[in-house]
Structure formats: structure tokens, C-alpha cells
Specification:
mainly alpha; 15 helices; 4 strands; 51% helix
Length: 367
């Protein structure tokens, strides 16, 4: 008989089980591309948005002090990544069900598919998105099934959030939900958990998978020299949210979570601006204060987002040095995700404060 029948290979008793793949090499890592291209763009566009190293140092001290003080369970020490991961679900905003990892992972993907450009509504905020998806999934889990997502309409997206009027760019949001449902069905057997497992415990590989399977997550721009600048905000936030939703364990156990960068959106650059870690040119600041829109893909927008990535890296590195001085060799690593969450929460808590500089307004599907 030709060809001969395939035989199933048996693992001998003494053989070790197959190990997970190592993290992607840095040259292939989408997160390395984010850091390198943003560093280049921020340097070229420093006349529009400048990073202040001394203010980044001060912000790092504020960050370390605040996070140490808010973590009494750590006996006065800076929280470990494990503790940081478990903080994500502490506010109860998201659906987190340890007994149902599939539903938990689906809700993360749905929220992150819709997590962009709330400001045109004026009242719509992130908590309405996360809380609305949670309530809908608890009421009827089939509402976030891949089959249902694959047929999403604008009215469905609105109902998912229980929002009383049309969402900003509602039809585009529905399209991205259809894209998500179709990709899960076609490539991952209809399972969000299978998508995450395909990353083999690597946050960088999960970002690459998301960007490959879902065009709506391919967050990049082209600068004035015709070179790409990568941000991958929502693809990265999927990895960070999975890490948080599962407390850094199970589906959220990523050995390379430290590779994740900040998620350059509206709120984080606003917090950096308030802290003086970044500053805008007079013309750009006047535009932002006047509420004028910053065009997606413009040099101004690229400058804001690239400088945000560079500034958060500077804060993270300064915080790491400070912790090494305070806690010695046993100091936990400082994650860009942790710095991002701190800055995002800081800005969210003060969003009604008239003294806070305004955020830049940009119509985009990426953040």
C-alpha cells in the first residue's frame, strides 16, 4: 500500500512532555517594533511633542510611592507582577468567571474590539462598555457567541452596551464585531480560549496572532518619511486584559508579559501631559485646548502616541532603578502595563477636573 498509513507516535515513558514555544525572537516581536519605531518617530517629531526625562524621573517616584502605599498586603514593598495582575478584576467592572474561561476570554475580546473613540458621544465611557458587555453576557451568554458576533448589526452593538442612543461610528463597531466572530469561527473552532492557547503562553505571540487574524487591530501609521510606526494598542490590550482577567494564571499565564508596552490612547498622554513628562508645541497645545480634531495618521497624532510610548518606557526604567536602590536584588520587575494602568486610572479619576489639560480628539478605530 502506498503511501503507507500514518502511524501515531507514542511518547515513551521517559520522554518529557512537549514544552511551550519560547517567546518570539526580538527581531520578529511586534512589541519590539512598537518600541523601536516609536523611539524613532518621537525623536523625529520632538518639535511637536517632547519628552522630559527629569519629569519622567519624578513621575517614576510618584508611581512607586503610590503603588507601594496602595499595596499593604506586600508589607510596604512594591507589588509583584502577580499582585498587579490580580488588581485588574478588583473593581468588578469586567466579567471574570474562573469556572468559565471561554466566556471570560470572549468578553475580553468583545470589549477590546469596541474599545475606541468614545469621546464624540460626550457621556459614553469605558465603564459603560465593560459593564454593558458583562451584564449582557451574564443575562444570556449566547449574546457574545462567535455565531452571534458574526452577524452583528449597529443595533446589536448598541443593545450589547444597553446604550440609549446610537454609538459613535456604530456601523464600524458592528463590522469589527463581525470580523471577530468570523475569525473565531474560521480559524479557532469558534473558541476565544483556543485563540489565546494558540499563543503558547506568549503575550508577544498573542499580539501577533490578533494582528494577523483581525485587520481592525492592525494599529500602525506611516510617517512623513514613508516609514511605518507601530502601536498595536488594542492588540496589546487584549494580551494585558487576558493576563489581568486570569490573574496571570491559566489562559493568562504569559512568560513575556514584560514585553508589552503602554497602550497609547487618549487618557495616558493626557496624564503624562499633566505630569509634565511630555509637552506639546504651542500650536498643538492650542489646537487640543480648542477641542479641534487631530487627524488620524497626521504627524501630530503620531508624535503624541510615539512620545507616550517613549515616556512610559522612561518612567518604567526610572522606577526599576529606584526599586533596585530601595529593595535590592529582590525587587520585582516594573511592567509598562502597570505604569499604563496607573496613569490611566489617575486620569480617569480626574476626568471632571477643570485643571486637567484636555485630551487630544482623534477619530480612529485604534483607540
Amino acid at each position: 500500500e502506498w503511501p503507507p498509513p500514518q502511524r501515531r507516535r507514542r511518547r515513551r515513558p521517559h520522554q518529557q512532555p512537549r514544552r511551550r514555544h519560547p517567546p518570539l525572537p526580538m527581531m520578529d516581536c511586534p512589541l519590539a517594533l512598537v518600541r523601536s519605531t516609536c523611539a524613532r518617530a518621537a525623536s523625529k517629531l520632538a518639535h511637536l511633542v517632547a519628552v522630559d526625562p527629569s519629569r519622567c524621573e519624578q513621575l517614576a517616584r510618584d508611581f512607586v510611592d503610590a503603588e507601594t502605599a496602595s499595596s499593604p498586603a506586600n508589607d510596604g514593598l512594591f507589588p509583584s507582577p502577580h499582585h498587579v495582575a490580580r488588581q485588574w478584576a478588583a473593581d468588578g467592572m469586567h466579567l471574570v468567571d474562573p469556572s468559565n474561561p471561554e466566556l471570560t476570554a470572549r468578553c475580553v475580546l468583545v470589549v477590546d474590539a469596541l474599545n475606541w473613540c468614545f469621546w464624540p458621544d460626550g457621556e459614553l465611557e469605558y465603564e459603560h462598555l465593560a459593564g454593558g458587555v458583562k451584564a449582557s453576557a451574564l443575562r444570556d451568554p449566547s449574546l457574545v457567541s462567535p455565531e452571534r458576533l458574526a452577524t452583528a448589526t449597529g443595533a446589536y452593538a448598541r443593545a450589547l452596551l444597553s446604550w440609549p442612543r446610537a454609538l459613535p461610528n456604530e456601523e464600524e463597531r458592528a463590522r469589527l464585531l463581525r470580523e471577530l466572530g468570523a475569525a473565531l469561527l474560521a480559524r479557532f473552532g469558534g473558541s476565544a480560549a483556543a485563540l489565546v492557547r494558540a499563543s503558547d503562553g506568549s503575550a508577544s505571540r498573542l499580539v501577533a496572532l490578533i494582528a494577523d487574524a483581525l485587520p481592525g487591530f492592525r494599529d500602525a501609521a506611516v510617517d512623513g518619511e514613508g516609514r511605518q510606526v507601530f502601536f498595536y494598542k488594542r492588540a496589546q490590550i487584549v494580551a494585558g486584559d487576558m493576563w489581568g482577567a486570569f490573574g496571570g494564571e491559566g489562559l493568562g499565564a504569559f512568560g513575556d508579559i514584560a514585553r508589552i508596552t503602554t497602550y497609547p490612547d487618549y487618557r495616558v498622554p493626557q496624564s503624562l501631559l499633566a505630569a509634565g513628562a511630555i509637552s506639546y508645541s504651542d500650536a498643538l497645545m492650542a489646537k487640543v485646548r480648542a477641542g479641534e480634531e487631530v487627524r488620524a495618521g497626521s504627524e501630530e497624532e503620531i508624535a503624541i502616541r510615539a512620545a507616550t510610548v517613549v515616556a512610559v518606557e522612561a518612567v518604567r526604567e526610572a522606577a526599576s532603578r529606584l526599586l533596585a536602590e530601595r529593595e535590592g536584588a529582590g525587587a520585582p520587575p516594573v511592567l509598562a502595563t502597570h505604569v499604563d494602568w496607573y496613569l490611566w486610572r489617575w486620569g480617569e479619576e480626574r476626568r471632571a477636573d477643570a485643571k486637567l489639560p484636555p485630551f487630544h480628539r482623534c477619530r480612529t478605530v485604534f483607540y
